[in-house]
Design a protein that fits this description.
This protein has 447 residues and is an alpha+beta fold. It folds into 2 domains: 162 residues, D-Maltodextrin-Binding Protein, domain 2 (3-Layer(aba) Sandwich); 214 residues, 3-Layer(aba) Sandwich (D-Maltodextrin-Binding Protein, domain 2), CATH 3.40.190. It has 18 helices and 16 strands. The strands form 3 sheets. Strands 1, 2, 3, 4, 5, 8 and 14 form a 7-stranded mixed sheet that branches. It starts with a strand and ends in a 9-residue tail after the last helix. Pfam families: SBP_bac_8.
């Protein structure tokens, strides 16, 4: 975890900001901020009375809890610089933590003491915290600058509590040159995949790059497997699990999803349980492995190591040969329902949804896809051709479905630890399934 205090620019808000507000109303007319009610959102979604700057030169410091993916560290500096230029009276005090390990525990702490003004998590976090009444709704002014798909999994009971800023894709990254040289076709079935694995082993090529020392990676790929073997077939599997209708011990489909980890473990680097992601990605780029089950966060490493590396992406094949590429809404902005500075919070939302130069800078740095209208990253993504193909064939699925059915914090992450123990011989497979079943009460965001 790192904590950063940023010094604000001690200047009055500019006349243009006073007149234009934070974009919460049309026509450039200044609207007074509504009186704040204890526990109420800063402004209802779609309201014509979205909170606006008061026009004073009051300096404001907003607290931000940022749960970061591996691609995200550093974007806070970009945001600070752009904010100082457009809204110099607003300062952000950042608390940046690893989303996979630390974001949920920090949120639990803040639920006791009061949430920060702004939280940056993932779309699935909205399902966890919105039902508790602690999140503010996001005004349509800012939501309308995003793609329609950005609202789908951050809307609860008709109100939208998150602004999805970017997206990741997940699947199997593959070395295009290696596939071409060996005549390997993109696999659609497990038999297709096994033929590539066998050919790799016969030729001394490691089939999969992996870094299982990171249990978050095990948890991530397990949900990838589950999306295509479980949730695409039964979108309510998690609800049925909590109702006692299904279990891990009895579900052949979920057991298969777990067992795919063994397929990778048996066909990856011998030191996968001591290898960091950067080293793993480097060995992939250097041609030591043919494939890696991962997500867009690996692109940053791939291109940093070799900006000419040619890679593609395909869905990990399921048992029925109809896997879809996985899409994950990533950076998602949430606000506190009890913030004392709704005007300033809206200014931050305005900046992030209207400053296209900043958005492209962030997307190019994180190597992620835009969730804002009319904003396209400029970095070269060798896998984009594959993504476009799956999109055209309606073969992309939003993983938020699975993450809402079985939450990450306290469930998926704990199951991943047991899977790691099984792969290393410290637990039996039956132990892993029993442990997953025993966590049923932790599997839902709304208990």
């Amino acid at each position: 975890m790192k904590r950063k205090q940023v010094l604000g620019v001690l200047a009055a808000i500019t006349a243009s900001c006073v007149l234009a507000g934070c974009g919460g109303s049309s026509g450039g007319t200044q609207t007074a901020a509504p009186e704040k009610t204890e526990g109420a959102p800063a402004a209802e979604a779609g309201s014509s009375e979205a909170a606006q700057p008061s026009g004073s030169d009051e300096k404001v410091t907003l607290t931000v809890l940022a749960g970061q993916s591996t691609t995200d560290a550093g974007i806070e500096d970009m945001i600070d610089e752009a904010l100082a230029e457009k809204y110099p009276n607003i300062t952000l005090e950042w608390e940046c933590v690893d989303w996979g390990n630390d974001f949920q525990p920090k949120m639990q702490q803040y639920l006791q003491s009061g949430l920060p003004d702004i939280m940056i998590g993932k779309a699935q976090d909205v399902a966890t915290y919105a039902p508790l009444g602690v999140l503010g709704t996001i005004d349509d002014t800012y939501l309308n600058r995003g793609l329609d798909a950005a609202r789908e999994n951050v809307t609860v009971d008709g109100k939208t509590y998150g602004m999805v800023y970017n997206a990741l894709y997940q699947g199997v990254y593959y070395n295009k040159a290696m596939f071409e040289e060996n005549g390997w076709e993109i696999p659609k079935t497990q038999d297709d995949l096994q033929k590539i694995i066998d050919d790799c082993n016969a030729k001394g090529i490691t089939p999969f790059a992996s870094h299982m020392v990171d249990t978050w990676s095990i948890g991530n790929v397990t949900m990838q497997f589950a999306m295509n073997d479980v949730f695409n077939k039964d979108p309510e599997w998690g609800d049925k699990f909590r109702a006692g209708e299904v279990s891990f011990a009895d579900s052949k489909e979920f057991q298969t999803a777990y067992e795919y980890n063994k397929l990778i473990f048996d066909n990856t680097f011998a030191n996968t349980f001591s290898m960091e992601q950067t080293d793993c990605d480097a060995r992939m780029v250097q041609g030591e492995a043919a494939m890696k089950v991962s997500g867009s966060w690996s692109i940053q490493n791939f291109l940093d190591i070799d900006d000419a590396f040619e890679f593609g992406i395909f869905p990990f094949p399921n048992q029925t040969g109809d896997s879809k590429l996985i899409f994950e809404p990533n950076i998602t902005l949430m606000t506190s329902a009890k913030t004392e500075h709704p005007d300033a919070v809206n200014c931050v939302l305005d900046l992030l949804t209207s400053d296209k130069e900043l958005a492209v800078e962030i997307y190019d740095y994180t190597k992620t896809a835009s969730m804002l209208k009319d904003v396209t990253p400029t970095f070269e993504n060798p896998s984009q051709e594959d993504i476009d193909k799956y999109a055209a064939d309606d073969m992309i699925v939003d993983v938020t479905l699975g993450n809402n059915q079985l939450v990450w914090g306290g469930f998926q992450e704990e199951n991943a630890k047991d899977i790691a123990a099984w792969l290393q011989g410290d637990e039996t497979f039956e132990d892993v399934l029993a442990a997953s079943d025993a966590r049923v009460d932790a599997s839902s965001a709304t208990k």
